Amino acid sequence: MKLNTPRWWYRRKPDHARVARLLLRPFGVIWAAATARRLTRTKAVTVGASVISVGNLTVGGSGKTPVARELLRLLRAEGIDAHALSRGYGGRLTGPVQVDPARHDAADVGDEPLMLAGEAPAWIARDRVAGARAAVAAGAETLVLDDAHQNPTLKKTVSLIVVDGETREDEWPFGDGAVFPAGPMREPFVDGLARADAVIILLPTDLAAPSPELLALFAQKPVFLARLSPDAGPPSGPLIGFAGIAKPWKVERSLVAAGADLKDFAPFPDHAGFSDRDLAFLADRAGLFGARLITTEKDWVRLPAAWRDRVVAWPVRAQFADPGGLLTLIRAASSQS
Q1: Is the preceding peptide bond at 269 cis, omega within 30 degrees of 0?
Q2: CA count, 13 A, side-chain hemisphere, 210
């Protein structure tokens, strides 16, 4: 059973859930040790293409998939045959397989690869090396790895980490720094940052600039700013929102900031499969308010086909403030590899 992300994970001051934090901290030590062992003992493989890793230091909610999708768009606009490579979390296929949105659904390949496949050729593989070789054999010149900062199997040309820029209301992207399950970190902050070549701070739509204190953490790394922007405003009229992402409250906040007449909002666990009971509940709420249902693009692709006409997808995209600077960094690293 999947559980909703604890919001107290992202509270910087450890005043919330003190007992849970204390009880879970030893498991975080074990998790961090296992991650460090895997990173140090695995020999990275070269596959004959530039490899750009788009990852994060936390277990989710930073916006890495929109960033990976926009990076694919930028690279392909430059004439580079860039392909996406994902583990395919949540899908039943182990790969390597190229994602075909006309043939595959989220149950096959996962929700995020389906989103990436709308921008560029996308592959899923539990074995990243096998997936990379399949993509290169199909003509990929550059691979964009979605969520691979803690996966050491491929030699990376550039390692980018995406950081959620939301720092209001005592929210902090790294919480109090505790490692999963005591907090949101996949590994200690210092260890993860040391392997990054650059940092992407992803700002919500209604936040003018990142916190100076957050920027100061990355003073020794190139930092690129990006912003999540909706493709269009939310539809008019009453709406019932729902989302199954790592930080569903961010979707609720973004809808309100965009002017949505939001009557209610239902959070679900990340990558949640929507059961008949869930959908019946949402339909009842919509009927009560005479509202339409609205969700994220990532959630929409996980809906049963019969429900997609009944739910509005609200796509958002990452837009870089300095896309040219990011491409220059990638070109420089690729020329040296």
Answers
A1: no
A2: 23
Please report which confidence band the pLDDT of residue 320 belongs to, taking 50, 70 and 90 as the band edges: very high
pTM: 0.90
At 3 the pLDDT is 61
Cβ proximity of 202 and 211 under 8 Å: no
Which has more confidence, 156 or 8?
Answer: 156
Q: 255 near 296, Cβ under 8 Å?
A: no
Number of helical (H) and strand (E) elements in the chain, helices listed first:
11, 13
Q: What is the DSSP string of 63-112?
A: -HHHHHHHHHHHHHHTT--EEEEE--TT-S--S-EE--TTT--HHHH-HH
Kindly give, in sequence order, each residue whose CB lies less than 8 Å from that of residue 109, ignoring residues fewer than 6 positions away. Answer: 88, 91, 93, 97, 99, 124
Question: In the numeric block, which tokens belong to residue 93?
Answer: 């296929």
R_g of the chain, CA atoms, integer Å: 20
Instruction: Output the six-digit token pair for 235.
Output: 């539809």
Output the CA–CA distances (angstroms, integers) from residue 102 to 106, 117, 127, in the order listed: 12, 11, 24
CA distance 84 to 71: 10
Residue 337 or residue 333, greater confidence: 333
Q: Is 270 helix (H, G, I), strand (E, B) or coil?
A: coil
Q: Is the peptide bond before 184 cis (omega within 30 degrees of 0)?
A: no
The first and second tokens of residue 313, run together, are 């997808």
Are the C-beta atoms of residues 110 and 102 closer than 8 Å to each other? no
Output the pLDDT for position 75. Answer: 96
Query: Among candidates 93, 29, 80, 68, which has minimal Cα distance to 148?
Result: 68
CA distance 87 to 148: 9
Q: Tell me the two tokens of residue 279.
A: 């959908």
Rounded Cα–Cα distance for residues 74 and 248 (Å): 28
> For residue 185, how many other CB atoms are within 10 A of its CB?
26
Q: Give the whole-angstrom CA distance, residue 52 versus residue 170.
A: 32
